[in-house]
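Figure caption, in words: inputs first, then the predicted bound structure.
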Amino acid sequence: MNKEGQPQGFDFHCHIDLHPDPVAVIDLCEQEGIVVLAVTTTPKAWPQNCNWAARKSNILVAAGLHPELVNERYAEADLLEQQIHESRFVGEVGLDGSPSILKSYDQQKEIFGRILDTAQKRGGRVLSIHSRRAVRDVVTMIEGRTDPERVLCILHWFSGSVAEARRAATAGCYFSINQAMLDNDRGRKLVKYLPINRMLTETDSPFSMIGNSRSMPWDVITTVEHLSEIHGVSSTEMKISIFANARQVLHFAGVEMPFRRIDKRAD
Ligand SMILES: [Zn+2]
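Bound structure (zinc ion present):
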């Protein structure tokens, strides 16, 4: 946050708990004014992330079960369902159709279906969704099981086609975009066709790379600049749009901006 408590950027998909020193990253995010959606890959990781974020208004924690871990963590699906009753944010969840984990695809669909149903029942839930090699099924399930008035879906690191992106946007989805998506022609072309009023920024840190370095949450500031070039608008205009989208998504989950820095001395 700056002095007025205004955010400088939004990272809507970051694995803070998979950094070597999560607390140091959280402190730096606060200094840099970055609002982070800290996604988790297993339900058991959620309480620790909530503890780290407890006194930080810029860190929001999502309860999740990564589709790649569904096979070994299948028994934790019940715990995740309980957490969705408490947590306004859910992620990382979704489907992954990669050949190496295709054997768990039916289990993945079952669990993702239960997650969508629980979010729909509770309402006011924001989901960060993984859809690698599974965009069609992910969007079909979102369309069939949720209502955009009750569940707001963000497709993280979307890698489908332009037609699939249009269909997802019609279903009410947002798209969180990271720097690695903009490193190649295909990614840039896709992003050019995404509606500006549905775009958010993310890093998927520490998994995504920028050149030879691991991305960090404050890289979203540069991503906004690149998005402005791709869309042919000024960086100020793009920043205003992305921030308005972020405000809308957070408002959906009952979180209002600006975030005021929590004064640790004032208890
Ligand atoms: Zn991720």
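The first helix runs from residue 22 to 32.
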